[in-house]
Design a protein that fits this description.
Elements lengths: L2 H15 L3 H14 L4 E3 H13 L10 H17 L3 E2 L4 E4 L6 H15 L18 H13 L4 E5 L2 E5 L5 H9 L1
Antiparallel strand pairs: 1-3, 2-3, 4-5
Helix pairs in contact: 1-2, 1-5, 3-4, 5-7
């Protein structure tokens, strides 16, 4: 696989397992990108990080002002390294994410594993880590269904998904082979 494909897979793994990056990617960046925002600054993320710091609970040690600033910078750096943003310095631009079919298959398997049910996978907010809204996911899954990479059938609110591999790990092993 190309390095860009592995980066896209890593973005899902980090987003699924690490807070506050999960909320930053699925809530803050996705919503701002959907609104048509062009760039993000460290100051914009600073307020988000302060909310995250407060949500840790009263027993958690408070961040210093420098710690909050560094946390905001680190979120921007991670989003940049994982392909959600681009640019150098304190101002980052929203990147365009175009995943290969193999990466989309991995996303489908891993999200289905995390959701515990393949039929919940198309509605998952984890797709937002690739800036994919529900209609985007629907189109991507229909395309994979058309090429017989998976089974995706929708009738109104009823969704049936058949994935070719037992797990995301098996999907990754087969795709990388």
């Amino acid at each position: 696989m190309s390095v860009a494909d592995w980066r896209d897979c890593l973005r899902l793994w980090v987003g699924a397992t690490e807070q506050p990056f999960r909320d930053f990617g699925t809530i803050r960046l996705f919503v701002e990108q959907e609104k048509g925002r062009y760039q993000v600054r460290t100051d914009d993320v600073h307020a988000f990080f302060e909310k995250v710091a407060l949500a840790r609970g009263p027993k958690a040690k408070a961040f210093s002002e420098y710690g909050k600033l560094r946390g905001a910078r680190d979120l921007l750096r991670m989003a940049t390294e994982l392909g959600m943003l681009s640019g150098l310095g304190p101002v980052k631009k929203f990147a365009s994410i175009a995943m290969s079919d193999d990466v989309t298959m991995f996303y489908a398997h891993m999200i289905a594993d995390l959701e515990g049910n393949p039929s919940k996978m198309p509605e998952s907010k984890l797709w937002r880590l690739a800036y994919m809204s529900h209609p985007d996911v629907h189109v991507a899954l229909l395309r994979l269904h058309q090429y017989k990479r998976l089974n995706y059938e929708v009738a109104g609110n009823i969704v049936q998904v058949g994935l070719p591999f037992r797990s995301a790990l098996e999907c990754a092993e087969r795709v990388a082979a």
